[in-house]
């Protein structure tokens, strides 16, 4: 007999976990079943060592504030990403206050977010970026630093052995965060489980078939017993990370036509020397090399995982045709369909720069990787670092004209009738997952969303309001979320103090 459920969530990553927790709060009477092919939650991209754990809010990532041809800095994208991160902070604070999440330091910790450049032109850009962002409410407290002494005081590991005859500059913001998205996912799923959700690990979704009544037949295989079963669901969310594109293609919805995926793998250097780890307390993001894609921006990240500080550097790009770290070599080939072949070919022609970049990264030896690290840590010694394989990204390829375009963000794809939706892409990803899941809910449950709005406003007081246009409300939610998430302890990491320019 076919089981029936209201909601099927495919994949046990941060996206399904977030959507499951939101729906459980808003519609407690709905039955929810989750299927995950691996034996644990958050074992793909949401695992803490498979991503950088940066609470992306555009405080330090320079790709969100590009320089215009006239030399000015475009901050529109930076404000938008920060707005979305504030939504996540509010939902997590609500979840802590209402007992969905336990001790916040298990998943979120305060850490300065820093942009770092060298060279006179880059330092000039960073000053302009500071001048554009610091007056913005969401970026209050940002500092501009170009004094070698101040640089050395704040970033001792990065200063030893540095040749300061070349100008350096930093944008420094104390109010950044490190996030263990794995721990967050596990806690949200634990809540879903204890509130009646049916979580099946070691269960792979093989196929999806639309029924005449609008519901879906979801074919699932138990990977331990090899038995298959079908579940009938009114709504399906494909939160399968890199596995989302093939499943959405199997669903046959017209909205996925023209989409393709370009897999990019990566490696991080993880520090194995506790003495070095203790000498660095910041997430420091550099500038991508000319022609390199945004996800290639090198960064030196303090991590806090299971209460232990860590340090990682990267990413170094790699390439495999797999769509998941635990995927198959045939993934890319199988995703090529008559409806997306021109999108893929178009990108093949226009993205020669990306191909060149990937080839150069693939040819980089371990010594070459240490050379790249030495731009951040001049006295880097390869013996203090181990190479680990990061999560797999599947960049979105979308139809454009007769060809296609490669995107570096995330995209929600939903059927017109709202019975199925999925998330493609990787960045800024987990940090802005709450906004992405609200988008899924609004598109798939437009009537219920109106009824849910009062409760949603309880969870996210700024819902529907631009905080950058409402500084008073921003300060209110900032104070609340900082306090609830334990982000005010120790150093003053609130953004209330005025921006400071420390000149050399
Ligand atoms: C190198 C790297 C660095 C990153 N850094 C950051 C960062 O600093 N900050 C940030 O916010 N984001 C970052 N991201 C992005 C972030 O990791 C992702 O956006 C996020 O983890 C995606 O979550 P998800 O739930 O969509 O997918 P995942 O966490 O990948 O989960 C998908 C799950 O679906 C399962 N699945 C797949 N197919 C099936 C199937 N057929 N049946 C059942 N289960 C299936 C998989 O096994 C997996 O467990 C980074 C990503 C990468 C790769």
In short:
With 504 residues, this protein is an alpha/beta fold. The chain has 15 helices and 21 strands.
Write a structural description.
With 504 residues, this protein is an alpha/beta fold. The protein has 15 helices and 21 strands. The strands form 3 sheets. Strands 4, 5, 6, 12, 13, 14, 15, 16, 17, 18 and 21 form an 11-stranded mixed beta sheet that branches. Strands 1, 2, 8, 9, 10, 11, 19 and 20 form an 8-stranded mixed beta sheet that branches. A two-stranded antiparallel ribbon has the order 3-7. Flavin-adenine dinucleotide binds at residues 10-16, 35-38, 42-46, 51-54, 56, 181, 204-205, 239-241, 243, 247, 266, 315, 324, 390-391, 393, 423, 426-431.
Topology readout:
Blueprint: E1 3-10, H1 14-26, E2 32-36, H2 76-97, E3 108-110, E4 113-118, H3 120-133, E5 143-145, H4 148-154, H5 156-159, E6 168-173, E7 177-179, H6 181-194, E8 198-201, E9 203-210, E10 216-222, E11 228-238, H7 244-251, E12 260-271, H8 274-277, E13 283-285, E14 299-305, E15 308-318, H9 331-335, H10 341-350, H11 352-362, H12 366-373, E16 385-389, E17 393-400, E18 403-407, E19 410-414, E20 420-425, H13 433-444, H14 446-459, H15 471-484, E21 501-502
Helix pairs in contact: 1-6, 1-13, 2-15, 13-14
The structure holds flavin-adenine dinucleotide (FAD).
Flavin-adenine dinucleotide binds next to helix 1, strand 2 and strand 9.
């Amino acid at each position: 007999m076919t089981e029936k459920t209201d909601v099927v969530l495919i994949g046990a990553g941060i996206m399904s976990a977030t959507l499951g927790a939101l729906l459980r709060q808003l519609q407690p009477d709905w039955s929810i079943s989750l299927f995950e092919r691996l034996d644990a939650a958050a074992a793909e991209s949401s695992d803490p060592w498979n991503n950088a754990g940066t609470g992306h809010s555009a405080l330090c990532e320079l790709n969100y504030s590009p320089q215009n041809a006239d030399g000015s800095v475009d901050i529109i994208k930076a404000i938008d990403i920060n707005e979305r991160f504030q939504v996540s902070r509010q939902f997590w604070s609500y979840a802590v206050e209402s007992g969905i999440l336990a001790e916040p330091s298990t998943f979120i910790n305060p850490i300065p977010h820093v942009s770092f450049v060298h060279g006179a032109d880059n330092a000039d850009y960073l000053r302009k970026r500071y001048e554009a962002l610091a007056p913005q409410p969401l970026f209050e407290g940002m500092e501009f630093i170009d004094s070698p002494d101040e640089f050395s005081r704040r970033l001792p590991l990065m200063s030893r052995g540095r040749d300061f005859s070349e100008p350096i500059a930093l944008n420094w913001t104390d109010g950044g965060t490190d996030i263990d998205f794995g721990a967050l996912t596990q806690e949200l799923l634990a809540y879903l489980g204890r509130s009646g959700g049916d979580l099946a690990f070691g269960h792979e979704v093989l196929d999806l078939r639309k029924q005449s009544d609008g519901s879906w037949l979801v074919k699932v295989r138990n990977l331990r017993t090899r038995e298959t079963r079908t579940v009938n669901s009114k709504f399906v969310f494909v939160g399968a990370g890199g596995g989302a594109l093939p499943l959405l293609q199997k669903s046959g919805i017209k909205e996925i036509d023209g989409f393709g995926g370009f897999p990019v793998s990566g490696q991080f250097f993880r520090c194995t020397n506790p003495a070095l780890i203790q000498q660095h307390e910041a997430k420091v993001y550099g500038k991508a090399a000319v022609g390199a894609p945004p996800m290639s921006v090198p960064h030196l990240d303090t991590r806090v995982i299971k209460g232990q500080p860590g340090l990682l550097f990267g990413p170094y790009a790699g390439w495999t045709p797999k769509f998941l770290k635990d995927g198959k070599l045939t993934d890319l080939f199988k995703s090529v369909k008559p409806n997306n072949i021109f999108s893929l070919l178009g990108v093949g022609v226009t993205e020669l720069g990306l191909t060149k970049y990937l080839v150069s990264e693939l040819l980089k030896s371990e010594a070459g990787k240490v050379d790249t690290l030495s731009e951040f840590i001049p006295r880097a010694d390869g013996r203090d670092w181990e190479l680990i394989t990061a999560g797999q990204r599947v960049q979105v390829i979308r139809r454009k004209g007769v060809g296609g375009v490669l995107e570096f963000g995330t995209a929600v794809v939903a059927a017109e009738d709202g019975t199925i939706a999925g998330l493609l892409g990787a960045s800024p990803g987990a940090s802005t997952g709450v906004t992405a899941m609200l988008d899924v809910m609004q598109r798939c449950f437009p009537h219920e969303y109106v009824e849910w709005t009062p409760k949603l406003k309880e969870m996210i007081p700024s819902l529907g309001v631009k905080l950058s246009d409402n500084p008073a409300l921003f300060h209110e939610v900032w104070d609340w979320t900082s306090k609830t998430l334990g982000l005010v302890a120790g150093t003053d990491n609130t953004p209330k103090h005025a921006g400071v320019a420390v000149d050399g």
